[in-house]
């Protein structure tokens, strides 16, 4: 197991690599190149520069999050073949510089969704939350709300260029079912996995966030059966999952620990996002993103880490979203301090499991 920390790059961050290097037990960076338009090939020179910058700080770069999927691929339109070829070239380019895992998702339009980016907790910290009744009536209003709450930062998955054609996208997706989306995923994954197998890069699909339909959009990564279907769509160790405990747990019907145990044992989780959530209304599926500590949320973090440990997990983990604490400001969910606390806590649980 290697503990990592997500970092958006020197031009996108207030957080410095030298800060991350001081987190006990943090070995690597989960990196990205946020300014490359979705679908365009990632240039070798840019990848090389990112790797060298991170390694100069004493950290590794083995995981990329994310190489986003062009909407034409998700929609299954004829132009998808061009974007798939670009994706395969990017996989090859990343492999040349030692990248082992690519995290991505197959969610239409939005990569993730919350209704409040600055939800205040009783201890004075702030976090992300989702309250069903607060979901705006229109996606356009939601987009504006997200932009207003982003503290001036570009939010991953909510880049303005991706959302500029929101209305047209929603009109198109009205005619796409969950099964259609599955077929489009299968077309994509069948096309790229031979390249992944050739160069040694594992694809790791992130669950839908939230794991149910919003605004009528199709969904295909909602639960254990969806994950099983995905793994069987192309039965290869290079077709894997980014198992995000917070996202899959947003549907209380999902048994997070059992899902982790099964797919770890099957060797299909090369990358895990480990975080806690606290349900405020289970029936409505309302929650906020809690501190990592088990007692602060609704998930048993020891059981989660045990499911990974006891079933042979040997991939990469990162603490996922954190609160804003101690007066810190920045990209919602991605401050330094609370994620550092979360990483240290997860490392402590892992050490305890190793010494049982």
TrEMBL record:
<dbReference type="GO" id="GO:0042840">
    <property type="term" value="P:D-glucuronate catabolic process"/>
</dbReference>
<dbReference type="GO" id="GO:0008198">
    <property type="term" value="F:ferrous iron binding"/>
</dbReference>
<dbReference type="InterPro" id="IPR036237">
    <property type="entry name" value="Xyl_isomerase-like_sf"/>
</dbReference>
<dbReference type="GO" id="GO:0030145">
    <property type="term" value="F:manganese ion binding"/>
</dbReference>
<keyword id="KW-0464">Manganese</keyword>
<protein>
    <recommendedName>
        <fullName>Mannonate dehydratase</fullName>
        <ecNumber>4.2.1.8</ecNumber>
    </recommendedName>
</protein>
<dbReference type="InterPro" id="IPR004628">
    <property type="entry name" value="Man_deHydtase"/>
</dbReference>
<dbReference type="Pfam" id="PF03786">
    <property type="entry name" value="UxuA"/>
</dbReference>
<comment type="function">
    <text>Catalyzes the dehydration of D-mannonate.</text>
</comment>
<keyword id="KW-0408">Iron</keyword>
<dbReference type="GO" id="GO:0008927">
    <property type="term" value="F:mannonate dehydratase activity"/>
</dbReference>
<comment type="similarity">
    <text>Belongs to the mannonate dehydratase family.</text>
</comment>
<comment type="pathway">
    <text>Carbohydrate metabolism; pentose and glucuronate interconversion.</text>
</comment>
<keyword id="KW-0456">Lyase</keyword>
